[in-house]
Design goal:
about 650 residues, two-stranded antiparallel ribbon, 20 helices
Length: about 650
């Protein structure tokens, strides 16, 4: 099966896109062009190229660090880190910045999504006429719905007419725009496109990473679920453009919760080539990328810069590089041995990678979300908590170094660890703080410097292991740790179907036998109890705490428990802002957080966020407003309330 790798980015407004054409090789050949006219879609080759470009556009959304920041910072999963710039502080809403139409980084979604939507419009309008199968056209239908779903969750109602009519390929540059309402976007674009895609897409992908019935079912189930919450509106959050929360087709929230449940269960029962991995670690481990649990990803490769979409040796921080994994990674290279040696080098391995320290996990992540760190493998399978000496990658051939308590440490043995047991016994002496160069402490009988999870701060914290780099071309050295990750960025997982169905069940959907909310959640909790590898111990293990995990599940599941499970399962992957906005729980979960500040600070402080009702929508980007030839009053009316000058 041919994988999709491409270096294509769709272009804006009326013209569209750089396209690809298929060949008999293992990858799709690119034919870059500087410009296109609409007649290119009048050819089979042009339509096929337009479809392929839609996979490429994912890389301008997923892995783009500033968009990644907008999906997490300001929630219970992340705050700004020690090295954060204004982009990250603005998103935190904690008084250190200001989220505006100019500073919001959801702009990365707006421009990319609308360019791709117009490409999809061109494919859908012309595909049948030039002899392209409905199956291939339905890939475009999926991506048009996919982008509109992201947009409507982020900004509220958005335009369906890009200049030539609703859902029409725009061939005329226009400098005006009218926003449709939220119900119109769902019922005219998202639902119809996904229903058609489910009918016509194959069960098995036509190319590696290609869209299928299963991924379309997942997105339709999630769209039904999100729209049901929008209709229910439990906390009276305002919408924009203003409209009554009435479904044009006459259905209520309960109907859509049921549709979400039924669609998710249908996907679970008809998985095609997809399913759950044996253990949580296996889902996110670099050697196991593109496994059967991943339904959609923005792809990259270490084999070729052109098809990777970015340098293989150095990343400058801009899309389409995959550099989200740098953001919640602290500067672990600060760690020194007791004899003053820098013993942990930056290397292109999943536990390490390039540190930027732009984002940091609040302490609630460790005290509440991942409270069970013994039975539940998801803590160990989410974070790097033990940092091991790797001095040989910098050319040092020491047999050992002297570390905590004057004890010797060999290569790949722990130099520094985050601990959750015996935190009251940690000795935070000035000597240990200075020698470790981290403000760390010691525990009797241990050769590694330690820091309790109750001292996690903006400077030093367990790094996000999930998104760390994985390469097979490092040799015996450090490899290319300064490059963007050449791993795919996972967008949709089979596991989410269980939590979508469970959430719908909690909200009143009638369930099938053996598929109650608790049953569905316990499928994932049982899997979380199955350990096949321990990151902290750096070795394969064979442990099964599935019985303990399922027994600990409450008899009655509520929405808060679903949200906690979603964070345990998908922490740091970019889901959280959408989850808290959908359920209108953002304030409840994130209006305060606890964290320490600088290196060596062991005194956590509580910080407050000001999350207003209008923050449940992001501002229309200033660049969009500046580009429209409309009056000041019209532009003000176009902007979401709360962000108007």
């Amino acid at each position: 099966m041919r994988p999709i790798f491409s270096k294509i980015r769709v272009l804006g407004t009326a013209a569209l896109a750089l396209f690809l054409t298929a060949s008999c090789s293992d990858i799709l050949d690119e034919q870059p062009r500087s410009s296109y006219d609409p007649t290119f879609f009048k050819t089979e080759k042009g339509v096929e190229g337009g479809v392929t470009s839609m996979y490429a556009h994912l890389r301008y959304i997923y892995g783009q660090a500033y968009y990644y920041n907008s999906c997490l910072t300001g929630t219970d999963e992340a705050t700004y880190g020690f090295s954060a710039d204004g982009n990250f502080k603005d998103a935190d809403l904690s008084g250190v910045g200001n989220l505006t139409a100019t500073t919001s980084r959801s702009d990365a979604l707006w421009g990319t999504a609308f360019s791709n939507i117009n490409t999809a419009n061109g494919v859908i309008e012309n595909g049948a006429e030039v002899g392209v199968s409905e199956s291939l056209i339905s890939e475009a239908r999926f991506f048009r719905a996919f982008d509109y779903f992201l947009l409507v969750q982020t900004f509220g109602g958005v335009p369906l007419d890009l200049g030539s009519g609703e859902l029409k390929f725009n061939i005329t540059p226009t400098r005006t725009s009218v926003r449709n309402t939220v119900p119109e976007v769902y019922t005219k674009a998202i639902f119809p496109d996904l229903l058609t895609a489910i009918e016509n897409l194959p069960a098995n992908p036509r190319v590696t990473g290609g869209v299928t019935k299963t991924v379309a079912r997942l997105h339709l189930a999630k769209a039904y679920l999100t729209y049901a919450w929008w209709l229910k509106n439990p906390n009276n959050i305002p919408t924009y453009p203003e409209c009554q929360r009435i479904d044009p087709d006459g259905h209520d929230a309960a109907w859509y919760y049921q549709q979400a449940y039924d669609m998710a269960v249908t996907a679970i029962d008809n998985p095609g080539p997809f399913g759950l991995q044996e253990s949580f670690w296996m889902v996110n481990a670099g050697p196991n990328d593109r496994n059967m649990e991943i339904l959609l990803y923005a792809d990259h490769t270490q084999e070729d810069e052109f098809y990777n979409g970015g340098s293989l040796s150095y990343g400058g921080g801009g899309a389409p590089d995959n550099f989200a994994g740098w953001m919640m990674n602290w500067n672990y290279t600060d760690a020194h041995s007791a004899d003053g040696q820098a013993v942990i080098n930056r290397i292109a391995e999943q536990c390490y990678g390039r540190p930027w320290t732009r984002m940091a996990p609040p302490q609630g992540v460790f005290t509440k979300t991942f409270a069970d760190k013994v039975n539940d493998s998801r803590y160990d399978g989410t974070f790097t908590t033990v940092y091991r000496g790797n001095w040989s990658t910098a050319g040092q051939n020491w047999e050992s170094v002297t570390n905590a308590n004057g004890m010797k440490v060999k290569e790949r043995e722990p130099i520094f660890s985050f601990v959750f047991e015996d935190m009251d016994k940690i000795i935070y002496s000035e000597d240990a703080a200075t020698k470790s160069n981290l403000g760390a402490g010691t525990l009797p009988g241990r050769a590694d410097w330690v820091l309790g999870l109750d001292a996690v701060g903006r400077y030093v914290y367990p790094a996000l292991w999930k998104l760390g780099p994985y390469r097979t071309d490092n040799g015996t050295g450090a490899g290319q740790p300064n490059a963007g990750s050449t791993r795919p960025y996972n967008i949709a997982k089979f596991s989410e179907l269980y939590l979508i169905a469970a959430e719908a069940a909690v909200e009143g959907a009638t369930t099938q036998a053996g598929k109650s909310a608790r049953d569905l959640v316990n499928v994932l909790r049982a899997r979380a109890g199955r350990w096949t590898y321990s990151n902290a111990e750096y070795k394969n293990v064979d442990r099964d705490f599935s019985a303990e995990m399922t027994a600990a599940t409450p008899a009655t599941i509520d929405i808060n428990y679903i949200l906690d499970e979603r964070s345990r399962e998908f922490y740091g992957e970019g889901y959280r802002w959408f989850d808290l906005v959908r359920t209108q729980k953002w304030n409840e979960y994130a209006d305060t957080y606890v964290i320490c500040n600088g290196k060596g600070d062991h005194n956590p402080q509580t910080y407050n966020r000001t999350i207003e009702a209008f923050h449940y929508l992001r501002p229309i980007p200033q660049g969009q407003l500046d580009g429209m030839e409309m009056t000041k009053e019209e532009k003000m009316a176009y902007q979401n309330p709360g962000y108007r000058d």
